[in-house]
Amino acid sequence: DAGVTQSPTHLIKTRGQHVTLRCSPISGHKSVSWYQQVLGQGPQFIFQYYEKEERGRGNFPDRFSARQFPNYSSELNVNALLLGDSALYLCASSLELAQYNEQFFGPGTRLTVL
Amino acid sequence: LAKTTQPISMDSYEGQEVNITCSHNNIATNDYITWYQQFPSQGPRFIIQGYKTKVTNEVASLFIPADRKSSTLSLPRVSLSDTAVYYCLVGEFGGFQKLVFGTGTRLLVSP
């Protein structure tokens, strides 16, 4: 079975631009979470979606938004990019909302903002 | 969410046992302890989770003392491929799934 997939793998943007990152969860998984990982630090929680509804939001500005589609795939959108948005963006999926340990992470999208 | 403290880095050699200790002094009654492993340019991978005493799986063991204010991840007979960053997380099982990662412990295994 395929794991969590993310696209694109790498992306280069300039300040002020907008970016859309995509995630396909493991088949049958209904929950998708997004994390930002800046070089040298641990991942930081951005959003969680379950059954197409936002169930959690981390401490990120409104420039960050996300949505989940009927097939449970998800998009993360970032507007008005800043240099500090350069990071590895990770998507994680899990079967249900209530299972703390069973989150499966994708390989991430490396975003570079110039 | 309980704050965790881990060593920034550790060095080991192939075949040795590695023990990484995590401090979580303000762990709550409902909190579980979970460890993740992350290789460069990859997402974290779940290793092991426990509540108290000892938990063992095919990859590692987790030792939790009675007061639960710390925990130790034990990796038996490490190999070069165990070189990675290891994160200790503490949080309530169930419900909201926000994982709170610290800076982790960077383990370097040498030949």
Topology overview:
The complex is a heterodimer of chains A (114) and B (111).
Chain A: E1 5-7, E2 10-13, E3 19-24, E4 31-37, E5 44-50, E6 53-57, E7 64-68, E8 74-78, E9 87-94, E10 104-105, E11 109-113
Parallel strand pairs in A: 2-11
Antiparallel strand pairs in A: 1-3, 3-8, 4-5, 4-9, 5-6, 7-8, 9-10, 9-11
Chain B: E1 9-13, E2 18-23, E3 31-38, E4 45-50, E5 53-56, E6 61-64, E7 70-75, E8 84-92, E9 105-110
Parallel strand pairs in B: 1-9
Antiparallel strand pairs in B: 2-7, 3-4, 3-8, 5-6, 6-7, 8-9
**Major pleated sheet of chain B:** 5 strands, mixed
**CA-based shape of chain B:** globular
N- to C-terminal separation of chain A? 37 Å
Task: Report the largest inter-chain contact.
Answer: A-B, 32 and 24 residues
Taking all residues together, what is the mean pLDDT of chain B? 90
| Record field, number of beta strands of chain A | 11
**SS content category of chain B:** mainly beta
Radius of gyration of chain A: 13 Å
The overall pLDDT of chain A, averaged over residues, is 92
Shape of chain A: globular
Descriptive terms for the model:
heterodimer, A: 114 residues, mainly beta, 7-stranded mixed sheet, 4-stranded antiparallel sheet, 0% helix, globular, B: 111 residues, 5-stranded mixed sheet
Write a structural description.
The complex is a heterodimer of chains A (114) and B (111). Chain A has no helices and 11 strands. With 114 residues, chain A is an all-beta fold. In chain A, the strands form 2 sheets. In chain A, strands 2, 4, 5, 6, 9, 10 and 11 form a 7-stranded mixed beta sheet that branches. In chain A, 35% of the residues are buried. Chain B is mainly β. In chain B, 0% of the residues lie in helices and 49% in strands. Chain B is built from no helices and 9 strands. In chain B, the strands form 2 sheets. Chain B has a 5-stranded mixed beta sheet with strand order 1-9-8-3-4, with no helix packed on it. In chain B, strand 6 and strand 7 form a beta hairpin. In chain B, 33% of the residues are buried. Classes of the chains: A mainly beta (114), B mainly beta (111). The interface between A and B is medium-sized, with 32 and 24 residues.
